[in-house]
Specification:
Layout: E1 3-8, E2 14-19, H1 20-36, E3 43-47, H2 53-63, E4 67-71, H3 77-90, E5 94-97, H4 99-108, H5 110-113, E6 117-120, E7 143-148, E8 158-162, H6 163-177
Helix pairs in contact: 1-2
Length: about 180
C-alpha cells in the first residue's frame, strides 16, 4: 500500500496518488481488456491530460505486451493531423484515454476516430483484474514503447525504446539516486 506515484498541483501539494496495489490493479484491469482484444504486439496511442491515468495505462501496455505510444492531446487541426499521421505510420488501431478526450476526438473527426478502438480506461471494470494473464517475458530487444519527438524543429519522429533500454535507464536512475 506504499505510495507508487503522486500528481502534484502547481503549489506542490499532492492532488492525486496511487499506491502500488492500486497501480497494479488498474494496470491489470486495463491490460486484461487489451488481452481480450488480442492486442499483444500491437500499438496503442495514449492520450491523457496531466495526472495519473496515463501511468496506469502505460503499465497496462507493459502488462499486455502492447507497445505504448504516449502523445500530447491534440488541440488544433495541425495536432489532429499529426496524431492521425502517427496512428497511420504505426498502424495503430487502439486509443487509450478518458471519455472526455475520446468525445472531443470524435467531435473533431468522427469518421476517422470511429474506425479505431477507443477505450475509456477510467471505466474499466475492476473485475477485469481477474481476467489478466501474465504474458511471456519479452526479449530485451523487443519494442517496449515509442517516444515521439516534439516536432518543434522538424517532423515528429518515433524513437524506439526497447525493454533493454528501459532496464538500463532504471539502473542508471538507481545509481544516480543511490537507492
Amino acid at each position: 500500500d506504499g505510495l507508487a506515484c503522486a500528481y502534484l498541483g502547481d503549489d506542490g501539494d499532492i492532488r492525486a496518488r496511487l499506491s502500488y496495489s492500486e497501480l497494479d490493479n488498474n494496470a491489470r484491469a486495463i491490460a486484461a481488456r487489451l488481452q481480450g482484444l488480442d492486442a499483444g504486439g500491437e500499438c496503442a496511442v495514449l492520450l491523457y491530460p496531466p495526472g495519473l491515468n496515463i501511468v496506469s495505462a502505460f503499465f497496462a501496455c507493459m502488462y499486455a505486451n502492447v507497445v505504448a505510444i504516449p502523445l500530447p492531446i491534440p488541440r488544433t487541426t495541425a495536432n489532429i493531423n499529426q496524431t492521425k499521421g502517427i496512428i497511420e505510420e504505426t498502424k495503430t488501431e487502439i486509443i487509450l484515454s478518458t471519455q472526455t478526450i475520446l468525445t472531443k476526438l470524435a467531435r473533431q473527426d468522427e469518421q476517422y476516430f470511429s474506425k479505431l478502438i477507443c477505450l475509456d480506461t477510467q471505466e474499466v471494470d475492476a473485475d477485469f483484474v481477474l481476467a489478466w494473464r501474465q504474458p511471456e517475458n519479452p526479449a530485451g530487444d523487443t519494442l517496449a514503447y515509442l517516444q515521439y519527438t516534439s516536432g518543434s524543429t522538424s517532423a515528429r519522429k518515433g524513437v524506439v525504446i526497447s525493454h533493454a533500454n528501459v532496464l538500463e535507464n532504471i539502473k542508471g536512475i538507481d545509481r544516480g539516486f543511490q537507492h
